[in-house]
Design a protein that fits this description.
Helix content: 25-40%
Oligomer: single chain
Order of helices and strands: HHEHEHEEHEE
Distance between the termini: 76 Å
Number of helices: 5
Number of strands: 6
């Protein structure tokens, strides 16, 4: 009888613990990825803060949000809505483009993808590693760039497309970004 009672108490405790985890999951089980995908103010904050955090780590001045660049980014993103193609516009702005399959990509993830190219950049030789692109990263940290404007859309096929425009543009041949 004591073994049965102990077993029942044990099962009751385990059930209560599992139930509490379902009601109050640990922080590691909570997924925040979709929380910002449709709030324009949060998207702008993620884009600007992501860029400026990277720049601050290199003692570079912060970028300022610019509505003209934002309008241009929205216009270009809408031109690509039908195909989500990674094709650059024909402007004198610097431009980074991100494409992600599906609609659950955040603006932060786009910035992180560009920032990840830092590992392909060699400051000493001012070049990208062979067969690697680092120009999204170098545009983000171009010292003389002062303004940023971006747009994030969902393409017709449901994929995510992010365009950021930079003024003045970076990636000037023969110059270092910082």
């Amino acid at each position: 009888m004591a073994n049965t009672t102990n077993l029942l108490l044990f099962l009751l405790l385990v059930s209560a613990l599992l139930f509490s985890l379902l009601i109050h999951p640990s922080e590691s089980t909570v997924i925040h990825r979709r929380s910002t995908k449709s709030n324009p103010k949060v998207v702008v904050a993620e884009l600007l803060n992501g860029h400026n955090s990277l720049r601050a780590g290199l003692n570079l001045p912060p970028l300022q949000w610019n509505t003209t660049l934002t309008s241009y980014a929205k216009w270009w993103a809408n031109q690509r809505r039908g195909d989500c193609a990674l094709i650059h516009s024909n402007s004198d702005y610097g431009e980074n483009i991100f494409w992600g399959q599906g609609d659950d990509w955040t603006a932060t993830e786009a910035v992180e993808a560009w920032e990840a190219e830092e590992s392909y950049y060699n400051y000493e030789s001012n070049t990208c590693m062979p067969n690697r692109d680092c120009t999204h990263y170098t545009q983000m940290v171009w010292r003389t760039t002062t303004f940023l404007g971006c747009a994030k859309i969902k393409c017709n096929d449901g994929d995510t497309y992010v365009v950021c425009e930079y003024y003045p543009h970076g990636n000037v041949i023969g110059q270092r970004p910082y």
